[in-house]
What we know:
Blueprint: E1 3-4, H1 5-17, H2 22-37, E2 41-42, H3 45-58, H4 65-68, H5 77-95
Parallel strand pairs: 1-2
Helix pairs in contact: 1-2, 2-3, 3-5
Amino acid sequence: xxxxxxxxxxxxxxxxxxxxxxxxxxxxxxxxxxxxxxxxxxxxxxxxxxxxxxxxxxxxxxxxxxxxxxxxxxxxxxxxxxxxxxxxxxxxxxxxxx
Length: 98
């Protein structure tokens, strides 16, 4: 059964509403899997591009600040929230009828 845009947005909001820590990291990884491993996402090509770009960026999210220091590409919760909110804004613009 295809996954809808509303379901995807719910998953992103769930990540935003979860406090920083291990559970949030698990939600991020589950989102990545949803985007990369499924071929039945029911969205436009433009929205799919935004979601794919976001999932690609979120692979560098590391909740543990000590582990984050191991590589300069890693980022924490503040940047995670910024990236998700930016993607949600782009999706809203792309989803509006012309």
